[in-house]
TrEMBL record, chain A:
The keyword Metal-binding applies. Keywords: Heme, Iron, Membrane, Metal-binding, Transmembrane, Transmembrane helix. Its main location: membrane. This is Succinate dehydrogenase. It holds the Pfam family Sdh_cyt.
Automatic annotation (TrEMBL), chain B:
NCBIfam families: succ_dehyd_cytB. InterPro entries: SdhC_prok, SQR/QFR_C/D, Succ_DH_cytb556, SuccDH_FuR_B_TM-su. It is found in: Membrane. This is Succinate dehydrogenase, cytochrome b556 subunit. Its cofactor is heme. The keyword Isomerase does not apply. Gene3D superfamilies: Fumarate reductase/succinate dehydrogenase, transmembrane subunit. The chain crosses the membrane at residues 12-35, 64-85, 97-116. GO terms for molecular function: electron transfer activity; metal ion binding. Belongs to the cytochrome b560 family. Keywords: Heme, Iron, Membrane, Metal-binding, Transmembrane, Transmembrane helix.
Length: 156, 126
């Protein structure tokens, strides 16, 4: 490959070893004074960090949710309006579900954003897929938040 | 064709593929799940009607599949964090994947009866 002359780090045999299982990837561009303002932030780094922090919290929140809803006390059999009313009578479970809703939606939306960036090659395709994604994620967060805060056990 | 790497076509690549696929599936379910739960604001009957769908044997089996996807994504996500933040993470990423698979198999075996008990009781009596 002609790239060997420009990327000396990757043509050495020792480029891959157990501590570096993937080839070294040179930064695609250096950040200079001419770099557009839009790409001068650390947005992607904060996104990367958010995926890990929210991921750890979601392991606890989602696995706890699955345990209560699908495993304990007869599994899915018990679920109904009365069961939901019983749980949301407690601010603790309201807060649990609210935090889980926000973190899961943002975590999932950022994951799908990465996937769209990876596979949609045309600018317009990326734009529309992301517009659809952000609309769906915003709708999910707003609807879910409203439902938790306005829940009325005596609706009938 | 790049020289043989420790990544391409191996555990690292396939766990990445599985992480993506399960992540997308879980996101789509989350969207549907918020919609069905929001029916508690319509009426108790509307909510109980849609929850009845979740008690159908085929959908109950899909819930077991959802548990499978979430458990893999959760356990492999912890492995990704270990690869990123633990100094020996990259060295042991393969062993950690087999650890993830092992814990996943144990948890899936443990979840089999509790998650599917509604269907099992319906099909084979109590």
């Amino acid at each position: 490959m002609s790239a060997e002359t420009t990327t000396p780090a990757t043509d050495a045999v020792s480029a891959y070893d157990v501590d570096h299982p993937a080839p070294v990837i040179e930064p695609p561009r250096a950040r200079t004074r001419k770099t557009p303002r839009a790409t001068r932030t650390n947005f992607e780094m904060y996104g990367w960090l958010f995926m890990r922090l929210s991921g750890v919290l979601l392991v606890v929140l989602v696995l706890g949710h699955l345990l209560i809803q699908l495993v304990l006390d007869g599994g899915v059999t018990k679920i109904g309006f009365a069961f939901v009313a019983g749980r949301w009578a407690s601010p603790f479970w309201q807060a649990w579900d609210l935090i889980m809703l926000w973190l899961a939606t943002l975590h999932g939306a950022n994951g799908l954003r990465t996937i769209i960036n990876d596979y949609a090659e045309r600018d317009n395709t990326r734009l529309w897929l992301k517009a659809l994604l952000y609309t769906a994620a915003g709708f999910t967060i707003v609807l879910g938040t409203l439902v938790i805060f306005t829940f009325d056990p005596n609706i009938r | 064709m790049p020289a043989g790497t420790l990544y391409r076509g191996r555990e690292g690549m396939w766990s990445w593929v599985a992480h993506r696929v399960t992540g997308v599936l879980i996101f789509f379910f989350l969207f549907v799940h918020v919609l069905d739960t929001s029916l508690v604001r319509v009426s108790p009957e509307a909510y109980d009607d849609v929850v009845a769908t979740y008690k159908n044997p085929v959908v109950n089996l899909m819930e077991y599949g959802l548990v499978a996807a979430i458990l893999f994504h959760a356990l492999n996500g912890l492995r990704v964090i270990a690869v990123d933040f633990w100094s020996k993470g990259a060295r042991y990423q393969r062993q950690m994947l087999w650890g993830v698979v092992g814990v996943w198999v144990v948890l899936m075996a443990g979840a089999f009866y509790p998650v599917l008990q509604h269907t099992l009781r319906e099909l084979f009596g109590s």
